[in-house]
């Protein structure tokens, strides 16, 4: 963090304790404050660099992004950057209000997955070691279940480079974590396991089928297959007491079969295409809808409470 003026004093805070004159600290629950003697209306500029690797990376990132003290230029550069990003879609025949709503929503689709590597390519892998990438940007915060149906299919059209970045990042995480399967909901190199299904598989298959392939394709297929084998409908052919899991896993089995077919792996394609039909195992003609079963094959009671129970069904 840098200030345009150097006549300030700074104190650091750790666990609510003040350390006077301390400009660098390490640990958890950290903070700082600073004071300047200013005249009425005077503004003090501050800029900061961020790195998930080290302080040197933060300094290099800051110098790369803002190597000056021109506030108006920084503001305009940010506007130009976002204007360029949202210009990938042109809206016609809409009111100004409708355009504002549309482009605000479009902006929201571009917040994550965010950059995790430094400008020099360094990043912290899932093995907690420093790695370097030269052909893609390592990214984090893949909220898979939230984004595989809409955000990522959209990005394959308006920002295929980001999709390619994310696939490479997922593959690196599967490798360096030692898990050899894809995370469902990744955040800062952690397998949070949030929500359900195998959304990373469908993201990879969607990208591959659309020609986005600047990554290790065989590794992508292997980790995708490992993922559906690791978390799927299993020998029952459905997920115990869970509608949504059954449907999600059947879908990712189908997605894997599509990629296998494209890669000429016909036997694997046939196996997972058949598994993708497991959704039929929880269709109930009596209620004319999907209905959860327990491990013995007994239908769970039908009613508003069970249909709305999150463990059974998530929309």
TrEMBL record:
A biological process term (GO) from this entry: glycoprotein catabolic process
Entry cofactors: Ca(2+)
GO cellular component: cytosol
Domain of life: Bacteria
Keywords noted in UniProt: Calcium
Record keyword Calcium present: yes
Keyword hit for Protein biosynthesis: no
Listed GO MF terms: carbohydrate binding; peptide-N4-(N-acetyl-beta-glucosaminyl)asparagine amidase activity
Database matches in Pfam families: Glyco_hydro_92
Domain Glycosyl hydrolase family stretches: 57-300
Oligomeric form and interacting partners: Monomer.
PANTHER family: PEPTIDE N-GLYCANASE PNGASE -RELATED, SECRETED PROTEIN
Name of the protein this chain belongs to: Alpha-1,2-mannosidase
């Amino acid at each position: 963090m840098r200030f345009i003026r150097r006549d300030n004093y700074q104190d650091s805070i750790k666990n609510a304790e003040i350390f006077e004159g301390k400009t660098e600290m390490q640990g958890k629950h950290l903070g700082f404050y600073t004071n300047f003697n200013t005249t009425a209306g005077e503004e003090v500029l501050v800029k900061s660099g961020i790195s998930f690797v080290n302080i040197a990376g933060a300094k290099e990132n800051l110098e790369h992004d803002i190597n000056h003290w021109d506030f108006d230029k920084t503001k305009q550069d940010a506007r130009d950057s976002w204007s360029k990003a949202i210009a990938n879609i042109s809206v016609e025949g809409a009111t100004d209000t409708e355009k504002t709503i549309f482009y605000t929503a479009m902006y929201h689709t571009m917040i994550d997955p965010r950059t995790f590597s430094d400008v020099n390519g360094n990043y912290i892998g899932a093995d907690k070691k420093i790695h370097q990438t030269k052909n893609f940007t390592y990214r984090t915060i893949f909220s898979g279940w939230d984004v595989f149906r809409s955000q990522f299919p959209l990005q394959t059209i308006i920002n295929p480079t980001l999709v390619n970045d994310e696939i490479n990042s997922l593959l690196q995480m599967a490798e360096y974590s030692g898990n050899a399967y894809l995370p469902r909901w990744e955040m800062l190199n952690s397998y949070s396991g949030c929500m359900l299904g195998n959304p990373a598989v469908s993201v990879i298959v969607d990208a591959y089928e659309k020609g986005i392939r600047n990554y290790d394709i065989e590794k992508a297929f292997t980790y995708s297959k490992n993922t559906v084998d690791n978390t799927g409908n299993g020998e029952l052919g459905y997920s115990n007491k869970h509608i949504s899991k059954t449907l999600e896993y059947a879908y990712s089995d189908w997605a894997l079969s599509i990629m296998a077919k494209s890669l000429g792996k016909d036997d694997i394609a046939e196996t997972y295409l058949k598994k993708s039909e497991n959704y039929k195992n929880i269709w109930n003609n009596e209620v004319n809808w999907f209905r959860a079963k327990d491990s013995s094959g007994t239908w769970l009671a039908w009613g508003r409470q069970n249909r709305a129970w999150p463990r059974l069904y998530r929309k």
